[in-house]
Amino acid sequence: MTTVIIKTTTKFLAALILTFGAYIILHGHLTPGGGFQGGAVVASGLALLIVACEGDVIMERFKRVPLSALESVGALGFLGVATLGFMGYTFFRNVIANSGFPLFGDPTPPGINPGYLNTGGTLPYMNIFVGTKVLAGLTSIILVFYLLLEVRKDE
Amino acid sequence: MRRALGLFAFIGFTLFLIAAAMSLRPFGEPVHTEMDDYFIDHAQMEASANNVVTSIVFDYRGFDTLGEATVLFTAVAGVLMALRRKGVKV
Questions:
Q1: In chain B, N or C: fewer CB atoms in 10 Å?
Q2: Residue extents of the structural domains in chain B
Q3: Which residues in chain B have Cβ-Cβ distances shorter than 8 Å to A34?
Q4: ipTM above 0.85 for this complex
């Protein structure tokens, strides 16, 4: 499947797709999108990279990427951010919102506004963790399917 | 006999679905709108996010997202356990 067309297209498209996924994850509390959707977009870019390479190159590259560890970090970080709400409130309470915390803690200007990135409280953190989790999970599923395909081809 | 039973069940289920579709509320007239109005009015100030959908998914209904994350984790763990090659770490 590694024709010249796929390789050349991947060179241009993969960087754009990964950047777009990161944008969707980071702007989840301002524009449509969020962690799950952005993670799926990043995973599709990584799937393009997987398809455009030979099996040995893929194994060499993904040997240094701890995908299952990233998935676990995403899940535990999501739970940890949710547990922050126990500081005086309940589970999943948005404690950082409107509190003046340096990162994502500023209050939102009321009414219709163009979107102020430094707001949202715990929502951007949850977006980032869920995005990490989804991209690691979907990429590992695609990688396992691809390796299975390689095994079938060898036999 | 079994065939007649299946046909009977099919017709009954179809009639049930048609009756359910006939008794739907007309489009644009939901039953209770208090919760929707509350979210639209307060989500921006309480969760301090412009995107109301994200504030509902991650703040008001965080448990739904937790279940969804659990489903994804289970799916990935199942696929990795069933299909991985011996000696390959993913």
A1: N
A2: 1-83
A3: 51, 53-54, 57-58
A4: no
